[in-house]
Amino acid sequence: MRFVPFLLTLLLTAGLVVALNTRWGGLQKKPRLAAFLSPQEGFWQNAEPVGKNFNARIGLAGLQGKGEVYFDRYLIPHVFAASETDACYIQGYLHARFRLWQMEFQSFAAAGRLSEVLGPGDNDDYVKYDRSMRRLGMVEAAKAALGAIARDSIVQQDCDAYTAGVNAFIRQLDRASLPLEYKLLDYRPEPWTNLKTALFVKYMAYDLAGSDDDFGMTNARSVFSKADFAKLFPVIPDSLDPIIPRGTRFPPPGVVPKIPGTADSLYFSATGTVTDIELKPEKSNGSNNWAVSGKKTLSGRPILCNDPHLSTNLPSIWYQMQIHTPDYNVSGVSFPGAPYIVIGFNDSCAWGITNSGRDVRDYYSIRFKDDSRQEYWLNGKWRPVTAERVDTIRILGRAPLYDTVVSTVFGPVMFDPTFTGFSDLPSTRSYAVRWKAADSSDELLTFHYLQGIRNYDGYRAAISSFSAPGQNFAFADKAGQIAIWQQGQFPAKWKGQGMFVMPGEDSSYMWQGMIPNEENPHMLLDSGQDRGFVSSANQEATDTSYPYFGGADYPIYRGLTINRRLSAMNSITPADMMRLQTDDFDVFAQMAQPILLGHIREAELDDAEKAYLNTFKLWKFRNEPDEQGPTIFHVWWNHFEHDIFDDEYSKTSLAVQRPNESTLLEALLRDTSWSFVDNVDTKNRETLTDIVTLAFHQSVPDLAQAGQDGRLNWGKFKDTWARHLLRLPALSRTHLLIGGGSRCINAAKQFHGPSWRMIVQLTDRTEAYGIYPGGQSGNPGSPYYDNFVDRWVAGQYLPVWIMGAEDRSDPRVKWTMHFSSSAPAE
Amino acid sequence: MASMKFIINLILIALLSFVSGLFLPNWVIAPVAFVVTLLIPLKPLAAFLSGFFALFLVWGGLAMAANAANDGILATRIANLFQLNGSAAALILVTALVGGLMGGGGALTASFLQKPR
Hints:
The complex is a heterodimer of chains A (826) and B (117).
Chain A: H1 3-20, H2 33-37, E1 56-59, E2 67-71, E3 77-80, H3 84-110, H4 114-118, H5 125-136, H6 138-151, H7 153-171, H8 180-185, H9 194-209, H10 214-223, H11 226-232, H12 263-268, E4 286-292, E5 303-311, E6 313-314, E7 319-324, E8 329-334, E9 343-345, E10 349-355, E11 361-366, E12 375-378, E13 381-384, E14 387-395, E15 398-407, E16 413-415, E17 430-435, H13 444-451, H14 456-463, E18 471-477, E19 482-487, E20 502-503, E21 522-525, E22 533-536, H15 557-568, H16 574-581, H17 587-597, H18 607-618, H19 629-649, H20 661-670, H21 688-708, H22 714-718, E23 720-724, E24 733-736, E25 752-754, E26 757-761, E27 767-771, H23 789-794, E28 798-799, E29 815-820
Parallel strand pairs in A: 1-29, 3-7, 6-23, 11-20
Antiparallel strand pairs in A: 2-3, 2-29, 4-5, 4-22, 5-25, 5-26, 7-8, 8-9, 9-10, 10-18, 11-17, 12-13, 14-15, 16-17, 18-19, 19-21, 23-24, 26-27, 27-28
Helix pairs in contact in A: 3-7, 3-9, 6-7, 6-9, 13-14, 17-20, 18-19, 19-21
Chain B: H1 2-23, H2 29-39, H3 44-69, H4 73-81, H5 88-112
């Protein structure tokens, strides 16, 4: 019988070895199989019973009064607290109860600690990510924010309470009740701190104000002639419809930056190039918001709408709630990881935010004396670095990496010979970064105030301290006023400042001051003698008459569509706004169609090709999920753009900035023999007809392939997901059949789109609607993990229930959590 | 008599594994099966089968109950993650097998400590 123990041992060992060595879903780190599978402590414990009872009595030591949280059938909490600080305490608990893993993971991402949890990643990408975040100064910025928070005693108190709420939940966790992802990655949560809250806020600043094109533009400047550069990067697109209407008069600037004497020779005409590659946030982080005044609505009262475009992650970036305190009654969405409501409305006012997209991150080329990088050349002499620190980057399964980072008067050195970002090329150059969001600021103060605003003056005061990321705050109130302010601390730059890497040997290239708040672009409509709406969609805020340099690359088409449509609309109802917010019209395609159809040699096409062309001709520029037109246009224009520019761009191996999507279209609308049309690699001089026809021929095999794969319909081709933060398809909602696209109001892209759609009509009894592509629970084992997704895809909304104190026994209340300082822990 | 011992051994392992699992890490099931089989000795094959089925039933049963209450939401996702084609049933079987192997291993080890009769 000896062979039995032998065989069993063999089977057991072999089975476990095989199982333990499968890289599920590409995760570097695997759970311990038995622990993960054990029904008493593993993932089965996260399989939330459908119909689970969420009633509970929860003790939070030090809670000032009693608090009640009423959950409706969507698991949206309606918090009734004795004070704002109590509300933050409870909010911290609820965020942790339903979203702990996500909040902590995002704070790790903000602090440059991904490798610690996930390992180095393919091609060491997580290590590069972590070094980028650390060098940018995310942790220092968060620490500086804590200093600013400490100066605002209310926010300090609220953050302390929030942190205590998170920790009250963390303390009661055991092996079995840990969120699923901790089990999957086999680690445990750390205690929450105010620093983690500050890190999350700075992560949003990175996500929304961490973008710049300085390296690509520097290379473009050095590769192209001045004339070509001007063609590729026009100052302002013809079809821009700015946030503040064209022709608005601006007062003379309060700050007039002085252009350095050497700017022409050492900056605009310099020929330096950059091989380092930056970490950049998702380019289309943007949003739509608008408010219409009562003269355009059926009710005669303003309606405010907002849909912030962010990564469509699961768990969602947003957590919906209502917070009722003796001082105010506010509803909307909050960020798990921070206190307060970020986008929402109270009993008097509503507000919504979009990203300003202003360039607040600039680079300076630093000349170090030697490889020790202790001294650098500035204003004619060697100066010691202003600071030096060694970051310890822990990497799962590998020895830690010690990264030495020095700082200059401009800011920290982001790239040097030891770190070239995501580039594989070695570099001897060093670049310091000046980033507005690294400064000390307290953005939470704005949201603290916004929750309780009663009128326009309150809104003005609330947003005045908001520093970065600069946002367009739309506002409407029950008195009938609507307004929009682009608020942030924006450097007053001389024209062209910060477009390229600046010389770091001369302090006259530094930022010279900030634009005074009152000169930030804004509009207040309260007279009835105006156009009746304000809006923003990440386009440039002003035309060229604004006295300050805007300096970035802005999307223009969503704003154009919104303004056209709002101008034409009257007697607007919330239902009209739902249709507008989910509109799939692509105005860019409409403008581009004559270029394509006017220049294709149809006689050259065979029958199969003509079939695609006919589909395109019949298409009405609506990016509906079951249309083939958008796919044909997308593929055709993509080939076309490459055929136009690749010949010039392939002359260098450098990463050179590509023009804005509007540039080619507008150039061709002005002049069909634009110089870039010719393929410089051929002897012939190609015409627009040649290139348009060539691009169509090139598109047909792609389209045929898409047809074979069943992906010719736009919804399938675009393939929108609500994707789990770990990018595991099994925990994501994949292949969502939703229309739209980056240039549509319904800006749903593959992994990115309207992350919260909100419509608020400010009638006496507020009427509000909202939806987001996720669910209130962050647990993939909960029915509330993704229960909003299908409605979001279908363009449906849920009415926002504004619960009153008198509604405690309303049938809409499904569960109640009672909070007090004495009750036993759950 | 032998079959009675087998059943008692199995039931004890199942009960004690479940109770200790409420407080102790998952691997406690192996020592539980080990101790029970020391106290109620079985021959190696019987010991293994008893430990295996005790934990196969406890882990499989608990997983099945959790899955039923959850309408298969999580098991489907995890079964996709494990490349089990989204089959909750397969995942329950794997769970039961892993539990069974640990239980069977514990009991089997104890059975080898007995003096051969």
